[in-house]
Amino acid sequence: MREKIDEQELIDYIESESEHHPIQVMCRVLKMPRSTYYDSFHKKPNSYHVANEELLEKIRAIHQESKGRYGAPKVHRKLLKEGYSCSLKRVLRLMKEAGIQSNITKKYRPTSSQSRVEERENVLDQDFTTTSINEKWVADITYIHTLHHGWCYLASVLDLHTKKLDGYRFSRTMTNELVLEALENDVNVQKSGPGLIVHTDLGTQYTSEAFQERLKKYEMIPSFSRKGCPYDNA
């Protein structure tokens, strides 16, 4: 891999490590003549700083062009395409020192539960047809990333006949109360009667005793997606 590292990078590395290792030893190990190393400062004082500043300026430009999305690997590939000779390690170090990093938001990954999910009756059974309102509702929780509060949660209830979200609640925490308030909102708007099917996933908020008791109060019929079946998902 020696041939892929240019002379300036070696000089840069030796200078950065000179406080920790003898220059003579590093020059011998890296096969860099000491005269070449010292001459680089006599002929072009601090040339490695100049080279790094020029490279950093280009790194900033590429990062800004990507609207902050590019991390070091993509910036490095872009530099190579534009004819720059540098290693990924060098780009990583320069970006880290300058505080430049990708601003891509990580995807939400729910924490896995160690408890066994209990299958429950799927009354809806993928029959999404209706003849009137208040026959079949589906409910779910959506994860929404915000700039000020991070991950927030939207609980919503949709009538399969109208395809309208008449019941919903937004919160910074995912609690049983969140889904209960969304259900109450829909009940108040729709004025539903007994026998209505409410289909949800097997999330703990929907299988909770509090939610099931609320369904009983309104004489609604609970229905649950089968575990691991996306076609059942509310």
UniProtKB/TrEMBL annotation:
Location of the Integrase catalytic domain: 128-234
Primary role: Involved in the transposition of the insertion sequence.
Pfam families per the UniProt record, alphabetical: HTH_21 (PF13276), rve (PF00665)
Name of this protein: IS3 family transposase
